């Protein structure tokens, strides 16, 4: 499972508000389509690949190529002819995916109308497989329900696994979890069942793996968002270029004051919803600020060294990815890495908030008397 998909859903949901003039930002390149919006609904067939991001993503028309989707809520209601890559708070597959699917989400469901023609890899809090899988199934989740045919092997690592009456596993079932399998008497496993005790991970190795996965996620997110929201990040770059000192001050104020204000709001009954919302939005703001600094840095480098290529979305994405890679390497340096990371965060959050402000309308000139 690609680790960046799990993070992508969190980012795009908050990023819809930042888009402003990019609220319905979209770009067609040949047969492919890329779009980002607060609520993105694809109602026209796509003859190539589809890349969609937003608070809510709903695919209601056929996609002839691959589909890469991320949002708070993601749903496919039409066939995807190739493979599906999706991440979201809630992901629902309600139509056929003819090849493989790689999915991460808080809640994932393959409905009886949905199916995956190839292999399915999934990670989430709750995973419900109610539609058939044509290949193998790999799942990591808290709770897993399988109540549909699976042609190949099944590998589940979960707190709890349930096999429903329609579960027909053509291969072998490998299960590693804290509780015994809850199995309906009608469920079938052709290759037998192997139950493993959960393995204890090496903390040092797990920490290194997590660091690499996190860095890779940041690099890919920087490239993706730089390509999807070019005008929004032009405003971030301008804020950082023209007012770097103010960007740093705004960043310091936001990082210090937002959690303090949220705690104060939680003390009052009326302010509890706002305080909770602020605490939930705070880590998203920090993540977006860190990414924004890398994207703005990449834009500035392009404008300085390769001005002829600064209008290309492909070069913007590449520059953002390279800049984020350099930041991750610098942040890993002992002693000074923490200061570098903090500086990037302060400037990025401040520039992002300054760019977030609606542009002031020019003052109307006085009419002649």
> What class would the helix/strand composition place it in?
alpha/beta
Number of strands: 17
Order of helices and strands: HEEEEEEEEEEEEEEEEEHHHHHH
Helix fraction by DSSP (H/I, runs of at least 4)? 40-55%
Distance between the termini: 70 Å
Mean pLDDT: 81
| Poorly predicted tracts of residues | 1-25, 359-369
Radius of gyration: 23 Å
Proportion of residues in β-strands: 25-35%
What gross morphology would you assign?
globular
List its traits.
disordered C terminus; three-stranded parallel β-sheet; 369 residues; 2 domains; single chain; disordered N terminus; twelve-stranded mixed β-sheet; alpha/beta; 17 strands
Q: Could you give a quick summary of the protein structure above?
A:
This protein is α/β, with parallel strands linked by helices and 369 residues long. The chain is built from seven helices and 17 strands. A hairpin with a 2-residue loop joins strand 1 and strand 2.
Polypeptide structure, described:
The structure is a single chain. With 369 residues, this protein is of the alpha/beta class. The chain has seven helices and 17 strands. Helices cover 41% and strands 29% of the residues. α5 crosses α7 and α6 (313-331) runs antiparallel to α7 (337-356). Mean pLDDT is 81; it is low at 1-25 and 359-369. The longest helix is centred in the C-terminal third of the chain and has 34 residues, at 272-305. Strands 1, 2, 3, 4, 5, 7, 9, 10, 12, 14, 15 and 17 form a twelve-stranded mixed beta sheet that branches. β1 (25-29) and β2 form a beta hairpin. The chain is globular and about 70 Å long. It folds into two domains: 3-196, no CATH class; 209-356, no CATH class.
